[in-house]
Amino acid sequence: MMEVYLDNSATTKCLPEVASLMTHIMCEDYGNPSSMHKKGVESEKYVRYAKEVIAKCMKVQEKEILFTSGGTESDNIALIGGAYANYRAGRHIITTRIEHPAVLQTCAYLEEQGFAVTYLPVDANGVIRLADLEKAMTKNTILVSIMHTNNEVGAVQPIEQAGALIKRMNPNTLFHVDAVQGFGKFRIYPKRMHIDLLSVSAHKIHGPKGIGFLYINERAKVRPIIFGGGQQRGMRSGTENVPGIAGMAKAVEEIFADFDAKIQYLYGIKERFVKGVSAIDGIRINGPSGQDGAPHVVSVSIQGIRSEVMLHALEDKGIYVSAGSACSSNKPSVSATLKAIGVEKQYLDSTLRFSFSLYTTEAEIDYTVKCMSELIPMLRHYTRK
Amino acid sequence: MYKSFLIKYAEIGVKGKNRYLFEDRLCDQIRYALTRCEGTFEVTKSQGRIYVNSLSDFDYEETIENLKTVFGVTGICPVVHVEDEGFEKLCQDVIDYIDKVYPDKNFTFKVEARRARKNYPKNSMEINCDIGEVLLDAFPEMKVDVHRPDVMLRIEVREKIYIYSTVIPGPGGLPVGTNGKGMLLLSGGIDSPVAGYMIAKRGVRIDAVYFSAPPYTSERATQKVIDLARTISKYSGPISLHIINFTEIQLYIYDQCPHDELTIIMRRYMMRIAEEIAKKSGCLGLITGESIGQVASQTMQSLMATNDVCTMPVYRPLIGFDKQEIVEVSEKIDTYETSIQPYEDCCTIFVAKHPVTKPNLNVIRIHERNLDEKIDELVKTALDTDEVVEIVYR
Questions:
Q1: CATH of segment(s) A4-12+258-381
Q2: A370 touches chain B (CB under 8 A)
Q3: Which fold has domain A16-256?
């Protein structure tokens, strides 16, 4: 049976060259980058090189890259560290209703700590309105956090315009962007886009799990939230995850080689899939279905079939997808994003997310569409009466 | 400080000529539970008592936790050993013991000595009086009450002298393996694991059957049932868990029978399949978590309709329990947290909005005829594709 992995927004396959580099580092070049001896120096080289690669692809400085354990930690440092470093200037934070739980839950924590948070609504395509942002900004606003690409419906936010707006209204307000889904799919240049803080995770771009980074503009005031031996200039203590860092850099190099062609390929895959499923009865696509959205995420509601059932029926055919967003799918709560974009009640529980990678083939897409058109009428027949 | 444990077993004590069978089983079960603990132990049986002696360093808490999983044990008494170095020394040892174990001395007590080694210079009555006096002198707040003492201080004179006074309650029941084997119908819910626990407590070995319905139920729901079986096996010993793919049968019934009778007819087939597997595995009965009136399929009429297809006895230990009482047991045996994970099980996926609550057995039988021979084939396939998971708690 064909195995078709269409859950690349949850995580991606690690590239073999990334894995072999990491094995080599773990078994041979295993020194601690803080050690004085040769083993340490050798290991530190991997960290330096990784900073160089990552800084270059975003046109920022190497010292502005902070390695973390992944997207969630990056978001936590940005929000908690950013809020506490600036709380004397004000206690107001702005974010959106469709953020990942790593941002939403951290904001909820900050609310408990006495910060006020405004949650911006989105339109039917999952995009914020700049007018709402402008209205929400006050002189007490110290931090705005807007995700680059939504993980559930693939909506892409007007980051550059939002950044310009924020800085025009208050140059001291920090602008954080959760780019966990957007990095490697779009060219993101923090300086041009007025971004102060940017979260990225490696395992979404064929790198290893447990590693990511936070870009921190050299002028942004952020307090550390993890304390210890003072590694990474005290911003994030703890021995650097050298194999992870080197593996992430390798994945970044790989994805940005011949970048435009890769993204065009992904849009081609997405278009083929959207065209295929649109022909099936009682189907709707949530969020942007074309090039206005992310090239790798499509949210599909299937009338009359619970997403869990559809998911397992596809699994039976070797096709792996997720119901809503994988990060929140082990608690069957209704997706905040789908609600925010106004998906009707009957579709909320019937929504699947298909997410592609550069290694998804047209044949896999055709097979998936074929399986869906066969399964859907059968599954609709058996329902609760 | 403690070197051994005296194991109390109430109900076995009243058995007649085959009492030794129960005691030997209990020793085996204790040894089995202790294999999960750090350290080496010896389990001995002498003069109607079972002792667990530690032969090395051991973890007190861990040992108690594991002894508490052995059915048949009603109490666990941690025992202090002292060398016999004269009565004076014994008095001092008892004073030290009381001082350590009871920081607050405001309680009543009674001394009960037992002289297994008859050449000891004092008889048990003399030991009782003399130790009592020494304790009253040492701790004036303590008072004697020979009828209902707060603390019963026991002193046993053997090769060494054993001192103990605390009893940690065990689970009670009878040692597993003294009473045949039963087949538990295990779902992912709160009730069935408790039912399995309660029957195992009567000395019954347990096997289990779970009905999965992919794609309507997920891998995780199956994993949840495996986790539940693992928790039960902490008490019951190894379990063979049979996983039956029920989807085809369920969909066929859905197509052929009135929708409001779906659950009852489905359950009749579950009972039939469970009984087949039970026969093959040498089980002597089926075990379910049913409780009268809890849901539509557990009214007396519904129970009669499902019971109708069984030839084996069906044990329903929770039949008179309220939900809250069941929840309390499930919390005690640590299945509750697992049971409430929100994965759909196959009984609920197609459940009618208004299922029959008082099914008429004759009507059900007539409607079941719509299923003709094809259902037998489906049942056979389900039995042939039975997947068995061997579950052992380590």
A1: 3.90.1150.10
A2: no
A3: Aspartate Aminotransferase; domain 2 (3.40.640)
